[in-house]
Amino acid sequence: MTPSKLVLKNLVRRKGRFVFTLMGIVIGMAAFVTFMALGGSLKSQIERESAALGANLVVTPKGSCAYEQVSILTGEQLPTNITSDEVAAIRSIDGMSAIPYLAERSAIDNRPVSVMGILPEETKDFKNWKIAEGEFFAGNEDEGAVLGSILAEQFKLKVGEEIRIRGTQIPVLGVLGETSGKDDLTVFLSLPMAQKLYKQEGLVSYVAVQVDRLDEVDLYANKIKDKVSLGVVSDKQMRNSVLSIVGTVNITLQLIAAVAILAAAFGIINTMMTATYERKREIGILQAMGATRFGVFRLFLLESGIYGFLGGCGGALLGGFAAIFAAPYISQNAATSFVKGAQIGIDPIMFTGAIVFSTAIAMIAGLYPAIKASKLSPVEAISYE
Amino acid sequence: MSNIVISVENLVKEYGQNATLVRALRSVSLEIERGSFTCIVGPSGHGKSTLMHLLGGLDHPTSGTVFIDGQEISRLGNRELANLRANKIGFVFQFFNLLQSLTAKENIEIALMLAGVPEKEQQSRARNLLKVVGLEEKADAKPGQLSGGQQQRVAIARALANDPPVLLMDEPTGNLDSEAEAEVMNVLESLKAQGKTIIFVTHSHEIASRADNLVYVRDGQIQLPEKLKKAS
Predict the structure, then answer these.
(1) pLDDT, tens only, A270-286
(2) Nearest chain B CA: its distance from A287 CA (Å)
(3) What count of CB pairs under 8 Å joins A to B?
(4) Taking the model in full, what pTM does it have?
(5) Cα distance between residue A55 and residue A161, in whole Å
(6) What pLDDT, in 10s, does the model give residues B212-229?
(7) Residue of A nearest to B58 (CA)
(8) Three-state DSSP string of chain B
């Protein structure tokens, strides 16, 4: 017999109570881990998207706010009120390249997909795309479509087949190599083709700008503002404002999970207090056999610590599964719909952290009952019937 | 080695203060010889159990001294008292002596564990102790699967775990039928024969009649044997 074996035997002697108390902490920790995993992967996804955009500056419609900035990174549909004259004016500035995009949405098999109108050659250079299968657009007027790799795989689309967008059959020209971003889930059309299909002739959603000299980003932002009355935001500003929105949402969700964990901690206190009363007599027997006060304290603290440890392990597993398998279905919101399972990192540090955190919370919760138990005088405990 | 294993001088135990003051023991002195079988008798609520608790280092006296095996224990701290209980004293109580979630053998192992015996040694020693009380085949039974007499024999085996010189028993047969009582008494007789000092709180005249010494506790004091004879 060792103290830890004794603790384990005590722990499972009331199996129902053990399971219910454990479930409390497992559920709380699972929620916490899910939100942490989702939050972490959303954050890295945003950073990836921002890098994949390849732009130092983004020109957006006048008066656009953070919502539009999120949409640029997630491939949501955007209002199209940048005119071709404005695009031309921006593109006339020397020392930078500017690429217009038309962001729209369509559906394949009733599932929403992003549709992007692009200037094929320029965008390909801008984003360093590789072609995995088939061909790229033959020219700016090409009437075919190029697909992101995951989208092609999801809908089992092959080069030469046709997709239907806005009632028009469009041949698939090629499939892009993987980019690990939202481009993998996008249908690309040539800009004139997209404008025609969506009846947005002469209009684009936003313009991505790459400057030749990075240290002069601010200068170019001002140059653009001088030429056109549109919003200009640097990639850093955009990333930060999007991250701060996502961060706020994350913190809110984690706070909710923290409340669940707090409730579970009180569940542990409750269970351990009950155990202290139930085993008062046994505590006395242990003391008569030579257990010290610290020994009794340690037994009870260890018992609640195990609740936390097991709850942390269970919660981390359950939360990890929830993040990987359930999260993409939780919401049709673009922010989660583009997060594909494989990209949610099972971060060992986060998992270990969750288990340590849960154990620590449970031991703090167990302090009061453990002190209560250890403060019992042997005579009082033995006389208890 | 002195022939006196327990010596008590002017032992006083009071609970509460002023108006609520209860004098559980008023100046008790006694000496108990090594290897003797002593019964503590007397009416309920007159201080028998309090005396037992003080003899066993479960409580601190208000004043007076208790020597066990030559060691003065009334001024020891909680930790030293716990150590004393683990090594020098074996307790057996009337009710619920055993930890219900553990088997007979594991209950004995706990006592060995608390005295710092390594786990492997615990196993073999626990088996031997069960043999001493004639319950080796019940090693893996939980207390709920044992009769009252068997449970008390396991409790005695556990009290013997660390080979203490003194066994303190608070009405261990008080809850047993006469057959079970006989089982327990047989075990105690053989322990006495092996030189254990046994101190036994009881209400039973039959058990008291088998004792080497009788200590009659009334109103928190030890009455002389002559008075005992008159009282009974």
Answers:
(1) 999 999 999 999 999 99
(2) 7
(3) 84
(4) 0.77
(5) 33
(6) 999 999 999 998 654 444
(7) A378
(8) CCCEEEEEEEEEEEECCHHHCEEEEEEEEEEEECCCEEEEECCCCCCHHHHHHHHCCCCCCCEEEEEECCEECCCCCHHHHHHHHHHCEEEECCCCCCCCCCCHHHHHHHHHHHCCCCHHHHHHHHHHHHHHCCCHHHCCCCHHHCCHHHHHHHHHHHHCCCCCCEEEEECCCCCCCHHHHHHHHHHHHHHHHCCCEEEEECCCHHHHHCCCEEEEEECCEEECHHHHHHHC
Contacts of B158 in chain A (CB under 8 A): 289
Contact: B78, A293; criterion CB under 8 Å: yes
Look up tokens 């203060």; give the residue.
B17
How far, in Å, CA of B87 to CA of B77, rounded?
Answer: 16
Distance from CA of B122 to the nearest CA of A (A): 7
Of A1, A295, A379, the CB nearest to B59: A379
- Closest listed residue to residue A207, CA positions, set A366, A84, A36, A40: A84
Q: Which residue has the tokens 């400057």?
A: A211
A282/B99 touch (CB, cutoff 8 Å), yes or no: yes
Category of B48 on φ-ψ map: left (φ > 0), alpha (ψ -120 to 50) or beta: alpha
The Cα of A385 is separated from the nearest Cα of chain B by a number of Å equal to 8
Instruction: Flag if A287 and B58 touch (Cβ within 8 Å).
Output: yes
Q: B102 vs A9: CB contact, 8 Å cut-off? A: yes
Nearest to A291 among B82, B93, B98 (CB): B82
Residue B10 one-letter amino acid: N
Whether B76 contacts chain A with CB within 8 A = no
A289 neighbourhood in chain B, CB within 8 Å: 85-86, 91, 110-111, 114, 158
Partners of B109 on chain A (C-beta within 8 Å) are 1
pLDDT number for residue B230: 47
The per-residue pLDDT for range A99-151, each reduced to its tens digit, is: 999 988 888 888 888 899 999 988 888 888 889 989 899 888 888 999 998 88
Rounded Cα distance between A72 and A237, Å, is: 13
Q: Pick from B66, B64, B80, B71: which is nearest to B14 by CA? A: B64
Chain-chain contact of B82 with A290 (C-beta, under 8 angstroms):
yes
- Which residue in chain B has the smallest CA separation from A375? B78
Contact A379 B78 (CB under 8 A): no
Complex ipTM more than 0.85, yes or no: yes
Q: Does B175 reach chain A within 8 Å, measured CB to CB?
A: no
Residues β-bridged to residue A117:
A102, A189
Give CA–CA dist A22/A19, Å, rounded: 5
* Pairwise CB contact (< 8 Å): B113 & A377: no
